């Protein structure tokens, strides 16, 4: 499973700076991440660094 590190600032309850997230897929220029809420959403891939492929 691919993983990505969030590089942006912490955003409310959904994303935490420097946290590692599971990447489910790439869709239409975005990456689908399971965020801190436990749900999967699409995010801008420029805010993440892929750390495992």
Write up what this structure looks like:
- With 53 residues, the chain is mostly beta strands.
- 0% of the residues lie in helices and 49% in strands.
- It contains no helices and five strands.
- A five-stranded antiparallel beta sheet has the order 4-3-2-1-5, with no helix packed on it.
- Strand 3 (30-34) and strand 4 (40-43) form a beta hairpin.
- The chain is globular.
- The termini are close together.
Q: What is the count of β-strands?
A: 5
Succession of helices and strands: EEEEE
Compute the separation of the termini in Å.
7 Å
Which strand order spans the largest sheet, edge to edge or round the barrel?
Answer: 4-3-2-1-5
How helical, in percent, are the residues? under 10%
Structural class: mainly beta
Uncertain spans, ≥5 residues at pLDDT below 50? none
Strand content: over 45%
What does the average pLDDT come to?
A: 93
What form results from the Cα inertia axes? Answer: globular
> What is the number of helical segments per DSSP (H or I, 4+ residues)?
0
Major pleated sheet: 5 strands, antiparallel
Rg for CA atoms? 10 Å
């Amino acid at each position: 499973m691919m993983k990505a590190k969030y590089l942006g600032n912490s955003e409310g309850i959904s994303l935490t700076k420097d946290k590692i997230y599971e990447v489910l897929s790439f869709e239409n220029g975005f990456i689908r991440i399971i965020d801190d809420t436990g749900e999967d959403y699409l995010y801008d891939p420029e805010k993440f660094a892929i750390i495992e492929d």
